[in-house]
Amino acid sequence: MKTSGGVWWVRALGSCALASTVGACGSSSPAQPSDFVLDNPNGDNGGDNGGLTGTGAAEDGGETGGSDPTGDGEDGGDGEREVSEADIVFVQDDRLYALSATGGLSVIDAANPDVALPVLGRHRMPGMPFEMYLDDRQVFVMMNDYGSYGWDDAAGSYTWHSASRLVALDTTNPANITTRGELEIPGSIQDSRRVGDILYLVTFEDGYCWGCSENRARTVITSLDVSNLAAVEIVDSIELVDETDEWSWSGPRSVSATDERMYIGGIDYDGWDDAHSTIDVIDISDPGGVLQRGASLTVAGQIQSRWQMDEHDGALRVISQPWQWSSDSPPVIQTFAVVSASEITELASLEMVLPRPETLQSVRFDGPRAYAITFEQTDPLFTIDLADPAAPAQVGELEIPGWVHHIEPRGDRLLALGFDRADEAGSINVSLFDVSDFAAPTMLSRVGFGGDWADFAEDQNRLHKA
Q: Which member of 44, 160, 300, 393 has the greatest number of CB atoms within 10 A?
């Protein structure tokens, strides 16, 4: 839902909203612009299969790529350095850039979206596109599952391996997109942030991937100098190794960031104890990309998405829910005073009061406010006052049918994307809430669509980028 020049891109790439999983946008790189079409979602990455002409929709998150604010509740520290996020759709200079699984990168003429959306060019990807950054028609694409042959010393022969890859593309002439540089990274890309000329890449190695140094799960934070996309250089890296035994269920982690710190949170669960989480703090304040490992925080429950962690005005706020077999533990609101990446102390902890035992579904922070959704059969929306981080307060509650998957705060309004299997209009819905009276939130309207059993292709960490 990016905006540009007064155009709200909800309708500009309708077929791209879930393109990273179900389809692609555009046609082959032609000498002359062609109509915007949808690829066959079952087609391969190497051919063009035609499709239906459409005008479609894209997604919100700012005005242009590369230098956009995150728009996700993550603050930029003192505001002197801007934190940028990757996406799969960007609008810049009347061009729309769309990244998809089967179509690769499509560059589309968006000067007159009410008339036509001609494809100016396309570049296929040899791996699974993850996300991209855009800077003055230079596109930096991150991809997973990049396969190639490499020499295996143990086998004494060339073997097929799969890793992640960073590719810099020059789209100045979209009919002839060229590769400026490439870099291979072990593991699977999970998330990234860019601050100035430094890209912070978070990857997960399951212990069995090509290039992994040990057979043990780990999360790796790598800083890269991207000031010259033709010669990207690794600056530094920090490994967060799973120290549990072979029965560990630990997996990829979630990322929240400011311009000075990254919070890397994930579940610690060995099958026997309560599932709590660890948040590792990484100091990214050095403008040259040198990383410093900071504090390691244990929080009460499961960190399953980036939206559960947020730093604001010197305080880290976390909402999580403990879990164990047959447990009715409620979600817990925790706050921490942040002096630096290495000096973080707990301020307060508050168990939420629920009308019945329910599961935490989604969380969103918005400055001094927070919103939490739990679910059993109906879906309570809870409002939380964090104006004084040392004294968090659960304020209001509203029960609604179904459950909410993702929340977008807009001042005294909330836009919420959710599900209601009982809604005859469609199981996916968009709801509008009024939270001007924080103690008594109300639902203003809801629109259902998507059929009886529609679902989202992306997890909560990437939903706003899908």
A: 300
Give the least confident one: 317-321, 341-345, 401-405: 401-405
Look over the chain and give the mean of its residue pLDDT values, rounded to a whole number.
Answer: 79
How buried is residue 49: exposed, middle or buried, by Cβ count under 10 Å (0-12/13-18/19+)? middle
Lowest-confidence segment of 44-48, 195-199, 274-278 by average pLDDT: 44-48
As a whole number of angstroms, the distance between CA 133 and CA 287 comes to: 19
The pTM of the whole model exceeds 0.90: no
Instruction: Report the pLDDT value the prediction gives residue 378, as an integer from 0 to 100.
Output: 66
19 versus 177: the higher-pLDDT residue is 177
Three-state SS string over the chain comes to CCEECCEECCCCCHHHCCHHHHCCECCCCCCCCECCEECCCCCCCCCCCCCCECCCCCCCCCCCCCCCCCCCCCCCCCCCCCEECCECEEEECCEEEEEECCCEEEEEECCCCCCCCCEEEEECCCCEEEEEEEECCEEEEEEEEEEEEEEECCCCEEEEEEEEEEEEEECCCHHHCEEEEEEEECCEEEEEEEECCEEEEEEEECCCCCCCCCCCCEEEEEEEECCCHHHCEEEEEEEEECCCCCCCCCCCCEEEECCCEEEEEEEECCCCCCEEEEEEEEECCCCCCCCEEEEEEEECCECCCHHHEEEECCEEEEEEECECCCCCCCCEEEEEEECCCCCEEEEEEEECCCCCCCEEEEEEEECCEEEEEEECCEEEEEEEECCCCCCCEEEEEEEEECEEEEEEEECCEEEEEEECCCCCCCCEEEEEEECCCCCCCEEEEEEEECCCCCCCCCCCCCHHHC
Two tokens, residue 24: 């692609």
C-beta of residue 270 within 8 angstroms of C-beta of residue 208: no
Nearest to 130 by CA among 169, 173, 165, 171: 165
Contact, 65 vs 87, CB < 8 A?
yes
The domains located in the chain, with CATH, are 1-130 (no CATH), 354-466 (2.40.128)
**What would the two tokens of residue 153 be?**
């010393």
Using alpha carbons only, give the angle 332, 333, 339 rounded to the nearest 5 degrees.
135
